[in-house]
Amino acid sequence: MIAVDERAERIAHDFPILARRTSRGKRLAFLDSAASSQKPRAVLDALVNFYERDYANIHRGVYELAERATNAFEGAREKVAGFINAEPAEIVWTRNTTEAINLVSFSWGMQNLRPGDAILTSQLEHHSNLVPWQLLAAKTGAELRFIEVDEFGIHRLDDLDRKLEGVKLVAVSHVSNSLGTILPLAEIVPRAHAAGAVVLVDAAQSVPHMEVDVRALDVDFLAASGHKMCGPTGIGFLYGKRALLEAMPPFLTGGDMIKSVGYEQTTFNEIPWKFEAGTSNIADAVALGAAVDYLQEIGMGWIRDHERSLTAYALERLRELEPRGLAVYGPPAGTERGGIISFNFGDIHAHDLASLLDVEGVAVRAGHHCTMPLMEKMGWPATARASFYLYNTEEDVEQLISALHKAAQIFKLA
Amino acid sequence: MEDFYKEYILDHYRNPRNFGHLERVDASAEDLNPLCGDKIKFELEIEDGRVKDVRFSGKGCAISQASASMLTEEIKGQKLEDVARLPISKVLENIGIGISPTRMKCATLGLKVLKSAALGEIAGWPDEDVTGTTASRP
Ligand SMILES: Cc1ncc(COP(=O)(O)O)c(C=O)c1O
Hints:
The structure holds two protein chains of two kinds. Chain A is of the alpha/beta class. Chain A folds into two domains: 2-30 and 299-410, Aspartate Aminotransferase, domain 1 (Alpha-Beta Complex); 44-297, Aspartate Aminotransferase, domain 2 (3-Layer(aba) Sandwich), CATH 3.40.640. Helices cover 40% and strands 15% of the residues of chain A. Chain A has a seven-stranded mixed sheet with strand order 2-8-7-6-5-3-4, with helices on both faces. In chain A, strands 11-12-15-14 form a four-stranded antiparallel sheet, covered by helices on one side. In chain A, helix 2 (41-54) runs antiparallel to helix 10 (282-298), helix 3 packs across helix 10 (282-298) and helix 4 (97-112) packs parallel to helix 5. The longest helix of chain A is centred in the first third of the chain and has 20 residues, at 64-83. By secondary structure, chain B is α+β, with helices and mostly antiparallel strands. Chain B has a three-stranded antiparallel sheet, with helices on one face. Bound molecules: pyridoxal-5'-phosphate.
């Protein structure tokens, strides 16, 4: 644990923003990486260097710069593919997880769903893995079903096979952004396939934090966001099995996604470019490649271990506040969970709590975390959420705990 | 941090004034702040164009609840036109602590709801943005 923390402290130095004081002169304890992570110097440098040395539009240029830019852009795709054990052709650049899910919904969904079919998702989903399916169900006449979760936010899988009857698509998140619940994909995917369903995984909260191998998991689609994995905003990706992507119609259309265009007819490009209409977010893709290099250098195994021990430590320290009314949600202590802890404190509303913590330099999120139906089901108007990443240390947890004690004092909790 | 949440804000949060429902409701409105899930409803009893009685209900953060509670104390007996013209500065003054842009919606939710309740009862109110809620960030 101590050695792990020392390494995290060294890692924190790679992130320029973490060295900055808040406007009140406090040390920054950044505990909101589930919303978006901070960026290491290596990624910032890659972005600037690319613009300074290698930038031009890609693919069509014949001059040297265009070639260098194309190589960097496609090289980044190879890095992302290697990161999750896919082929480069199976990686489609998108803006983020949300766009990747919408791509599947509009392209695969409109092509494959008929009235009477069903889509199975869960009660834990982020709005971006729920709203597209609500709309798709409405458009195609398919039924939307839910895997239920218990009071800890753990999926109930006993009736999964019954729920899978008639299901064409299972769309579930790997790690819940509200509660940190980890979905046992190894158990679900084979059962979904046996029922004839295709499986889409919202990996926004897993790919940045643990080793994810799309071949080993045998998932059909997987979506993730660069900005949550040390990369820049505006770039994310969709993984899709080659055969599925090849059979799908394009999503957006226009330049770059074509092979040849006549006035009447167009032949589409091969995958993955068939899905990348218009000039791509070239530089951010390149910088995401640098983020993947950075994460791999540190090691996803180490990152997962670090977050696991830091989360266990935080859960243990939070217990000392239980007598004053602190309630932690999500999987019970001792259960595997991601580095995400949702909580409430006495009668302090989560937003007030987040404001009070902010004064002490502790950045946590408060609200419904884009999971409004889940909050409604659980009966929580809002929760505060602390989430960890590779650069967080025990010192961040200490700062959180002492800020919580101060909040209790201000709100005069017993 | 010590004076960040003033004593009277906590008092209004934990013991909201005029909280609940009216027997006779002449005007009402409700709204929610999607950011934090705060929900507020205002009910007004109106006599001769003035607020005779008022209740609010809902739940949310200390800022939104205290701000609504303080408003209820101020508007009894006021003309509807005056209620509809209450400026945002009024609630900020009531709260008395610096409000960050992200918390502004919490602070002004009660005012927004109260104004729409009052406005609904004023015939032919000029088509201007008296609620002060246009162009706010999501
Ligand atoms: C589980 C999950 N899915 C989807 C998203 C959406 O990600 P993005 O906003 O980058 O599209 C998030 C981000 O908050 C998330 O946590």
